[in-house]
Amino acid sequence: MDFTFSFTSFLSFLVAFTLAPLFMGVILKVKAFFGGKQGPPWLIKYYTLIKLLRKGSVYSTSTTFIFKLGPIISFVTAFMLLLFFPFAGLPPVLSFHGDVVVLFYLLGLGRFFTVLAALDTASPFEGMGAAREVFFSALAEATIFVILALFFRLSGSLSFAEYFSGDQFVNLWSQSAALIFLVLIALFIVLLTENSRVPVDDPATHLELTMIHEVMILDHSGPDLALIEMGAFCKMLFYSAFISCLLYPFHTGSALYNVLVFNIIMALIYAGVGLVESITARYKMDMVPNFILTSFALVFFATILTMEFVQ
Amino acid sequence: MNIFFLALLLIGVGGTQALATFRLYSLMKAGAVLAIIAGCSFGAYDAAARLLQHAEPVIYNHSWLHIFTFSLKIDAVSAFFLVPVFAIPAVGALYSFQYLHDAKRAAGTAINYFFYALLIISMALVVCANNLISFALAWELMSVSSFFLVIYDVHKKATRGAGYIYFIFTQAGALFIFAGFGFLYSHTGTFGFEALASIPDSAKLIAFILILIGCGSKAGIMPLHIWLPYAHPAAPSHVSAVMSGVMIKMGIYGIVRFYLLLEPTSVVFGQIVIVLGISSGILGVVYAIGKQDIKKMLAYSSVENIGIILLGLGVGMLGAASGNKTMAAFGFAGGLLHVFNHSIFKSLLFMGAGSVLHQTKTGASNELGGLMKTMPVTGRSLLIGSISISGLPPFNGFISEFLIYYGAIHGLSLHGASFVLSALAIIALAVIGALAGAAFTKFIGVVFLGEPRTDKAAKASEAGILMGTALSVLAASCLIIGVWPYHFVQAAFLVTQAIPLVSDYTTAEFMPLMTNISRTAALFILLFIIVTVLRKIFYIGKEVTKSGTWGCGFTQPTVRMQYTGTSYADSIVDFFRPFIRVQKNYSGINKIFPGKTTYSSHTHDTSEIGLNIFVVRPVLYLLSKLRWIQHGNIQLYIGYIVLAIVVMLIFL
Q1: What average pLDDT does this structure show over B620-628?
Q2: DSSP for B122-174?
Q3: What's the CA gap between A28 and A271, in Å, rounded?
């Protein structure tokens, strides 16, 4: 394992981790703008985290130790993703050939425990959310692994650090731009799915029956809920960073300039999520699989194209 | 070889003495269990030592009446399979001591131990057989002994039916294998294994397909898997653990062994195996989600895992045929390691399901719930088993799936059909992994979490200490292999050196990979501990209260409102509808003040329906036309024999 104990790697990781809640504020601001409201303060998510960490918790009498494991594992797995990701083209803290497979499976472990924690409460609503979560994420998983296959075909790499560095980088500005364009659309759909955003899931709805992710964490409170929230911020940050690294070639140019561009693109992606949320409604539940499968079809098509494209 | 025979002898003695001493019930059980465990320990130790010390193959020959030679050989492939063949039944024997507890059925129990011992011996002989005849004999011995193990509860009609189906499948499968052997013999003129590589390519393909069908029906490849969901729930749980964990892998062994012996060069072999792997894997896991009986569900999950193993082997075969070393080595190593891993977690899950069955007297998951509180050891072990079988890090299932991924991803540099199949293998693995997660969150969530759905579940208590020990040993192995995979992966790679293409493949490529994975697993565990401690610190001095689950405003919830396994599975099963049939009976609400409404659903196996229509019915029709041959007249039967001899004398 390449263990880059450089100051910049750690700094970029720490900055990304601390900025994750701020970016979530961007979504809220955009939604407020479209709603004609002033919206919550930019730092609202930090306030929420501090508030949650200062509280105690109420545990359901139905639950077991699994209910408490859920938040810890979902946070740790999402947090580990950030350690392996090259933010703004800077080398990540850790990296090895093949890390992408391990990391997406670690996310699967996080999901496994989130779902179990939901089922642990004996609540019918949480069971319903859990059933939807496993179904939709299974479809999104297929898209992600096709993307990994496509990237291997294009660049021969199997780790985030390799994707965005060297001669064989994958990027919208490389010679395989057309394929990357399809990947970008698919990845944005996966981002919406995996982070429970509109049109797959509506985190702001008032009715538990119509939720997916939010309903699974209904019974969590206090620091447990704070862990879940932080995990969700990390996951969202990871997918957005993945998209921004495909959008702009960060492996060239000066580091400071790259960091600036990276943050602007990130803010734009979050704003895009807010925009989608403002102008579309959540799909009916039976439409969601079709929406996610669209992303699969796009990347599968792109992969088939490489048969003639890359020889 | 001596230790090997000593192991077989001890196991045999253990099984046979049970028949003599069954009147002293506990003594008989203790004797049988101890002898079997001792024998298995010797055998497993010997095999593991051989494997890790790169021992030279040993051969043992014994000619019988100059008719044929009984020949055994232990090479790396045999040794690799011998480890689970000996190790898993040892744990199963430990478990069985408290699982079989009905002193009124002493004779039945003694017979069970006898055939249990015979099954271990025959499986050991299958993987060591060194010519066609020895293989066929050991194979049949294995089928017959496992048949008697399945029908332990012979007084139950369902069990007899399951035994019947198993017997038909295993014998029909054996017929295909023997047909394949006959075909090979007609080309080589000898029962030996050595000459098989020299037969023409087209003959290789036909022989391989025949053996693939025969071995596939034992392994449970879709659509030849139908006996699994019948036989496993019927058999006692330690038997289903051994059958599902080890015996069905003998089918995989057959496929691997004959692939290595035939040394095929065409890509078709790999392509067939990958396609079978994809169909078994995806459909197996979808049925596992759809089934609500815990042992049926585990049986279908075996079909899924056989699919994953075939994907690995298929990727390896494709790599070997296309000259891609990385693909060949990683595919084969992943498939083989998954054989080993699956034997651990599937036997863990079956024995755990057995404990649930033993303590609650029901296997219907929709009648269970909340067992984590009353059966903590069983629950925690099964949680580990479920994470492992879903292929999630840091447990062992992930290691083998990672190797297969790695092999398949390197197959993407190929062209044409091989490229498409490699891509499909990757997609299939991803989908199987995610759906396995769904199936096993359902298993743990519905059976062990939430509130008990019936009285049976509410009154359950923890199973016996030996049963708990057996589960804990297996669960610990899952974690150990997941965090320190190095030696296990190395063993799997040693076996792959039997393939000519990768015989010089060094350990240099996988060693850093395994170190990295093991470090990532360690990092995960470290972060997990840190966050757990931090969480504890945040709760210091805070108010922590207990209350009912938030019912979203509804204040009078009952346990029957919980999400059931059926509802959890519904949307996924619905998505795969053409391949899986769900029959729903709903009385509906048609009055203003509705009376009692009923709802029931049943998941049907499409392959079973298909087989019934296209094979069973035509065969039965044909045979009913031939009924007149069987008339019960002994004179005429003797006439048949004379006629047959005369005809043979004339033609041969």
Answers
A1: 89
A2: HHHHHHHB-BHHHHHHHHHHHHHHHHHHHGGGTTSHHHHHHHHHHHHHHHHHH
A3: 9
Inter-chain CB proximity A131 and B568 less than 8 Å: yes
pLDDT tens, B120-175? 999 999 999 998 999 999 999 999 999 999 999 888 999 999 999 999 999 999 99
- The token duo for B435 is 């759906």
Closest approach of A38 to chain B, Cα-based (Å): 30
For residue B297, which of B256, B356, B249 has the smallest C-alpha distance? B356
Q: Which residues of B touch A79 (CB under 8 A)?
A: 527
CA distances from B534 to A72, B69, B528 (A): 10, 67, 10
* A271–chain B nearest CA distance, Å: 30
- Per DSSP, what are the bridge partners of residue B64? B68
Q: Contact, B393 vs A102, CB < 8 A? A: yes
Alpha carbon B32 to chain centroid, angstroms: 25
The answer to whether the Cβ–Cβ distance between B563 and A119 falls below 8 Å is: yes
The span from the CA of B607 to the CA of A179, in Å, is 39
- pLDDT tens readout for residues B375-413: 999 999 999 999 999 999 899 999 999 999 999 999 998
Name B59's bridge partners.
Answer: B73
Average pLDDT over residues A149-176: 85
In 3-state terms chain B splits into helix, strand, coil percentages (rounded to 5) of 75, 5, 20
Measured at the CA of B278, the angle between CA B618 and CA B169, to 5 degrees, comes to 35
Facing B527 at nearest CB: one of A76, A123, A137:
A76
In a 13 Å sphere around the CA of B290, the CA atoms on its Cβ side amount to: 27
Mean pLDDT of chain B: 90
Chain A CB contacts of B402 below 8 Å: 98, 101-102, 105
Tell me which residues of chain B, numbers 86 to 125, contact chain A at a CB-CB cutoff of 8 Å: none
Q: Which of A1, A72, A112 sits opposite B390 (nearest CB)?
A: A112
Cα–Cα distance for residue pair A83/A92, rounded to 1 Å: 6
Listed residue (B133, B229, B228, B216) closest to B181, CA to CA: B133
DSSP strands (E only) in A54-159: 57-60, 94-95
Chain B contact set for A303 (CB, 8 A): 423
Each residue's pLDDT tens digit, B455-477: 888 888 888 899 999 999 999 99
Tell me the per-residue pLDDT of A42-95, one tens digit each, with 9 for 90 and over.
Answer: 999 999 999 999 999 999 998 999 999 999 999 999 999 999 999 888 888 888
CB contact under 8 A, A105 and B517: no
pLDDT computed for residue A175 by the predictor: 82
Q: Answer whether B548 sits within 8 Å of A61, measured CB to CB.
A: yes
Residue with tokens 């034997």: B343
Looking at residue B180, its pLDDT comes to 94
Q: At what angle do helices A65-83 and A7-34 cross, to 10 degrees?
A: 110
Neighbour tally for B205: CB within 10 Å: 16
CB pairs under 8 A between A and B: 240
CB atoms A112 and B392 under 8 Å? yes
To the nearest whole Å, the CA of B578 is away from the closest chain A CA by 16
Cβ distance B211 to B254 under 8 Å?
yes
Q: Are A105 and B392 within 8 A, CB to CB? A: yes
